[in-house]
Design goal:
single chain, alpha+beta, tt1808, chain A, 3-stranded mixed sheet, 4 helices, 13 strands, 22% helix
Length: 193
Amino acid sequence: MVTELAERLMSAEEFLLWESEQAFRHELINGRIIEMTGASRSHNRIVFDLARALEDRLYSKGCEVFAVELGVLVDLLGTYTYPDVTVVCGEQRIRAGVPQESLENPTALFEVLSPSTESRDRNQKREQYLRIPSLQGYFLVAQDEPLIEAFTRDGDEWRSSEFRGLVSSLLFPALDCQIPLSEIYRRVSFADA
C-alpha cells in the first residue's frame, strides 16, 4: 500500500535531503511524500523485459535505459519520482549538489500500473511529467493485460494512443522504436496477474 507520510508540503530540494536519510525509498508528488512499496512478480518481470527491449533498440542511438534506480527531478517546487523505466538520450543532465543522482532531462518515462499507484500515475504524475521540456513520451503499462497507453509529443502537442494485445507493438516515433508487446509481456501469465 502506498502511504502519504507528510502533511506539510516539501520542496524537491528539502525532500532530497530528507530522503537521503531514509531506509526506504519515497517519491514526492506535488510536495507530498509518498512511500514506495514492493512490487508484484508480474510488475518486476514487465519492468525488466521492457528495459531490456528498450536497451536493445536504443543503445546504438545514444540512449541509456534505467530501471527504477534513477530518480527524476521533475521540478524543484515539489515533484521527484522513481519511474519504473527511464530513457535518456544524448547528454544526461544530473542535478549537482543533492545527496543522490537526479536526472533532469528524461526522454521517455514508463510507469507499470498497479492498483495502489494507477490513479497517481494517470493523473498527478502525468500532469507533471508532460511539463518536462525534454520528455518525448510517457507510457502507462498495464500488468493485468497486454496494454500500453502512450502520450507522445508531436511538436508542441501531446498525442495519446493505445497499444493492446500480444500481437500489437509499442510504437515510439520520436526514437524510431517499435517493440512487440509479446516481448514486453513474455513472462507474464495474465491468469495470475
